[in-house]
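ok new one. same drill as before - structure tokens go in, u give me an amino acid for every spot. 167 of them this time. try not to just spam alanines like last time pls lmao
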């Protein structure tokens, strides 16, 4: 049986997890208050591949999530000259909700709309993504009383850009 080189490369990249998954997992932006830098690692808790410093131009980069190993996210940079793949601690990145015009959004107990609603809100919120399945993210939202609400939201309702609105 004869395979094309393109098929072989695609097969290898797919099995390594080095591919973009359209709408499967969301994009995020850096949300680390530590000005000494945020590390991107080879594996969770492993060798540091790259450090992003909040004061650098790198602070506004978008990263696509391509895999979850709670509490770690495997990411790929989107808008940076270096195409970096690596692992970042999930608490150090964020996304925002897309309800810019006051649309009502819900967090659910499970990753489906038939599950119990945990929270309804109609203002844009910053969320920390802590887990995910294709199409859904498990997020934490900070309440005004400094407690967190945890629930699931559809990825299409999230924006991973810190510098502009998502369409």
């Amino acid at each position: 049986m004869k395979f094309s080189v393109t098929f072989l490369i695609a097969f290898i990249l797919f099995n390594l997890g080095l591919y973009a998954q359209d709408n499967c997992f969301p994009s995020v932006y850096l949300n680390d208050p530590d000005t000494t830098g945020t590390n991107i690692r080879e594996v969770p808790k492993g060798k540091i591949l790259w450090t992003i410093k909040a004061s650098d131009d790198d602070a506004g980069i978008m990263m696509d999530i391509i895999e979850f190993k709670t509490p770690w996210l495997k990411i790929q940079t989107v808008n940076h000259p270096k195409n970096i793949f690596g692992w970042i601690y999930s608490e150090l990145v964020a996304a925002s909700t897309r309800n810019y015009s006051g649309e009502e959004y819900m967090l659910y107990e499970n990753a489906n709309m038939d599950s119990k609603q945990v929270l309804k809100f109609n203002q844009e919120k910053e969320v920390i993504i802590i887990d995910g399945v294709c199409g859904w993210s498990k997020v934490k939202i900070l309440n005004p009383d400094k407690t967190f609400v945890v629930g699931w939201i559809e990825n299409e309702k999230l924006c991973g850009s810190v510098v502009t609105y998502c369409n």
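The longest helix spans residues 5-16. and btw The helical segments are 5-16.
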